[in-house]
């Protein structure tokens, strides 16, 4: 895929998930997103609903950032966010299930959220790849596909283990093939980072530094 500015912009979820973010900052995020030509904005559920120009999707998060919530709570949060105008929901899995190899529990919680926000809402599943082994990453991706998710996503950006890596993105892309999208998120701050993630197989990018990333790319 060409790494020109417009092509990369079309893959970006322009993100503001800081707990202290204010409504005015969200308004500024939306204005910047429109000016940059990105795919969507991603904001906390408490900020919904938001007003966006035509063509700019609205994403939010669910079970964020720890994932240590009951499936019914995640499902209710997702349903409420969709009712408030979210087009896409990025849910965090329960990492304890991944660490213990209980991928059926992961599948079940993703399925509960999927049922709460059926298509055309897009469901992305955050697996916190930096905290997992390769085997655990593969198991999580398979569970997400079995549960009907649309994307697998590397990271919240809040875990101390770190964010996206090209290795994790490549492994996730290899596991889901062209059946699901792969979102790279967490620690992507330069054009070089973004290009590396796309080359590894990312089909969406979660960025807070979108302007700086895009400024480093050719027209």
TrEMBL record:
Primary localisation category: cytoplasm
EC numbers for this chain: 4.1.2.4
GO CC annotations on file: cytoplasm
Subcellular localization, as worded in the UniProt entry: Cytoplasm
Pathway linked to the protein: Carbohydrate degradation; 2-deoxy-D-ribose 1-phosphate degradation; D-glyceraldehyde 3-phosphate and acetaldehyde from 2-deoxy-alpha-D-ribose 1-phosphate: step 2/2
A Pfam family recorded for this sequence: DeoC
GO molecular function, one term: deoxyribose-phosphate aldolase activity
Active-site positions on this chain: 90 (proton donor/acceptor), 153 (schiff-base intermediate with acetaldehyde), 183 (proton donor/acceptor)
Catalytic activity: 2-deoxy-D-ribose 5-phosphate = D-glyceraldehyde 3-phosphate + acetaldehyde
Domain of life: Bacteria
Family annotation (InterPro entries): Aldolase_TIM, DeoC, DeoC/FbaB/LacD_aldolase, DeoC_typeI
SMART domains assigned: DeoC
GO biological process entries: 2-deoxyribose 1-phosphate catabolic process; carbohydrate catabolic process; deoxyribonucleotide catabolic process
UniProt keyword annotations, A-Z: Cytoplasm, Lyase, Schiff base
Xref: HAMAP family: DeoC_type1 (MF_00114)
Family: Belongs to the DeoC/FbaB aldolase family. DeoC type 1 subfamily.
Annotated function: Catalyzes a reversible aldol reaction between acetaldehyde and D-glyceraldehyde 3-phosphate to generate 2-deoxy-D-ribose 5-phosphate.
NCBIfam families: deoC
Protein name: Deoxyribose-phosphate aldolase
Organism in which the protein naturally occurs: Mycolicibacterium brumae
């Amino acid at each position: 895929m060409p790494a020109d500015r417009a092509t990369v912009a079309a893959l970006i979820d322009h993100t503001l998930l800081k707990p202290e973010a204010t409504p005015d900052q969200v308004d500024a995020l939306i204005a910047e997103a429109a000016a940059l030509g990105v795919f969507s904005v991603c904001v906390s559920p408490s900020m919904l609903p938001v007003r966006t120009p035509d063509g700019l999707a609205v994403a939010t998060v669910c079970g964020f950032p720890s994932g240590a919530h009951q499936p019914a709570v995640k499902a209710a949060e997702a349903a409420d966010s969709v009712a408030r105008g979210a087009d896409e929901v990025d849910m965090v899995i329960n990492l304890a299930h991944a660490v213990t190899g209980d991928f059926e529990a992961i599948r079940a919680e993703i399925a509960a959220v999927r049922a709460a926000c059926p298509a055309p809402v897009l469901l992305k599943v955050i697996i916190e790849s930096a905290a997992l082994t390769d085997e655990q990453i593969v198991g999580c991706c398979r569970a997400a596909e079995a549960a009907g998710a649309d994307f697998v996503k590397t990271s919240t950006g809040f875990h101390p283990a770190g964010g996206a890596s090209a290795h994790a993105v490549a492994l996730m892309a290899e596991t889901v093939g062209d059946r699901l999208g792969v979102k790279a998120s967490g620690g992507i701050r330069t054009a070089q980072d973004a290009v590396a993630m796309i080359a590894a197989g990312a089909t969406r990018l979660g960025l807070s530094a979108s302007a700086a990333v895009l400024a480093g790319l050719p027209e």
